[in-house]
Amino acid sequence: MSRRGNVEDVRTIACVGAGTIGGGWAAYFLARGYTVKVWDPSPEAGERLTRLIDNAWPALRELDLLDGADKDAWTVHTDLAEAVEGVDFVQESAPEDLELKRRLFADLDSVCAPDVVIASSTSGYSMTEMATEVTGGDRFVVGHPFNPPYLIPLVEVVGGEKTAPEAVTWAADFYTFIGKSVIRMDREVPGFIANRLQEALWREALHMIDNGEATVDQIDRSITDGPGLRWPFHGPMLTFHLAGGEGGMAHMLDHFGPSLKSPWTRLTAPELTEQLRNATVDGCQTASGERSHRDLVLERDAGIVALRKLTQSLTTKAPAQSDSVA
Amino acid sequence: MSRRGNVEDVRTIACVGAGTIGGGWAAYFLARGYTVKVWDPSPEAGERLTRLIDNAWPALRELDLLDGADKDAWTVHTDLAEAVEGVDFVQESAPEDLELKRRLFADLDSVCAPDVVIASSTSGYSMTEMATEVTGGDRFVVGHPFNPPYLIPLVEVVGGEKTAPEAVTWAADFYTFIGKSVIRMDREVPGFIANRLQEALWREALHMIDNGEATVDQIDRSITDGPGLRWPFHGPMLTFHLAGGEGGMAHMLDHFGPSLKSPWTRLTAPELTEQLRNATVDGCQTASGERSHRDLVLERDAGIVALRKLTQSLTTKAPAQSDSVA
Fold first, then answer.
1. pLDDT tens, residue by residue, A93-103
2. Given a cut of 60, is residue B3 above it in pLDDT?
3. Is the ipTM reported for this complex over the cut 0.85?
4. Keyword Amino-acid biosynthesis, does the record have it (chains A, B) (predicted)?
5. Which of A173, A218, A311 sits opposite B183 (nearest CB)?
6. How close A82 comes to chain B (CA, Å)?
């Protein structure tokens, strides 16, 4: 672990690919005071990145900008070896093309200094699938951000079969150090966690449009004016925990378990085994911590009030109105 | 339509059932200046409702309270005929028990003045299933709120087979008049719209817990620190429209359509027919209105910035940190 060293010692980062995601990472790294070396074969890469950083900077200034961060501390390179020379970390965000990623990872492995961790922004492939052309592969990690990476805190971190656990730990620690909310997964799951959840909702929505059960506007409004008003501060599990009243998730599962099978979505529910029941209930109890049911209700209400005031001031949409599928 | 009259002329409302949902409706109706007559057979109903209204009132004062609203303008009745006497609208929120609802609706039909619209808060049953014991049934409508009804704007409105379209229109108009965001559905769909979407996400989450792929905390954080930061102001459809860059939803579906079949959730995707593609694209174009791609991006970023500042000030949770399934 010579060069890899402490996450505090990182000074220079290579962003491999500077599209929406790679460019978004570059903006974030700059805001956190790093020097960024960008590899992108496109002749317009520099111009596009300038625009992206210019657009992102005001938002970064509001939240995560460090004193002394230099908006212009980046260079673009078309030569990969040049781009990764002297860097302490690599964030790869090339297009989602498996063959391209495989070749790119082999190239990266041969030009990067030993022990530099190489993280991929992929949302579609596992590291085991992507690192097939790499001889060692123990330093290749998935670090999956959410768009835009300069604003959304979530990063899902997971290794492949050949990845060294220390490389996963290093990446998780580094992202945490720079202010991200890290979910470290101990196994590769297609779509990771957030995309699986998001996709389930999205597919149900497509089915409803397909069957004429709801319009695009109705689907969006059913979220923005409904459960979406809780999800930024209470996730889906804690939301259901609260829906169980003072009995919480245990009450929900023990009493409404059977209705889990009702046809409320096209996604079939799992069997509610004792083990699943307990894992879910325990998780909610841990999440609640010292907060009583009443504390959570008051927190939820304060959150919704603040959120509704916020969305009223933000949105340009027309006031609430009746509509129809017709 | 004699008594039903204009939605502006409603003065008194009966809340049938005063649990979490019925009591939440009562609090909202009081805040909007109505007199509320509560029917609830429980001897503790009055005390429980006092507590609920006391808890809700500060939040109502922040958002929807009308001048002159009287927090104490309610009475509790154990006799149904007495409770609905002289009221202009009935909101039923009895427990989710089909037989109970069927009997209750027959009773309500016999004691309510003709033409008074009777709306049910049910989340689980269709009006066609519930109104079987009612002779006419043309005034029975579903008006499905979200918890807590005194804060969440969404109300899904739909009739049953026997419901008169004018009764559905009246209910939709009334909810809109009192400040709700109404989604009027033209057919009965189990779980309506928001619950179908919410349930798909919830079931995917249960599957992940069941398979040891994610913990409760990871699931909640993957939403609160990820897509949940967009959903209060851009619903899932507009979020994907934006993810398509300047090409929007058309680009998304035309280019990433095939990956719709990738195993990112246990919910199978629909066939991406030309018709589904066009309905989805057109809906997003309508939703975007005059807003350009750049307008939407700036709106999204301003929203996330404000939202993250808000959640930082609201939440009592620990700062972002690395974790593991172990």
1. 999 899 999 99
2. no
3. yes
4. no
5. A218
6. 30
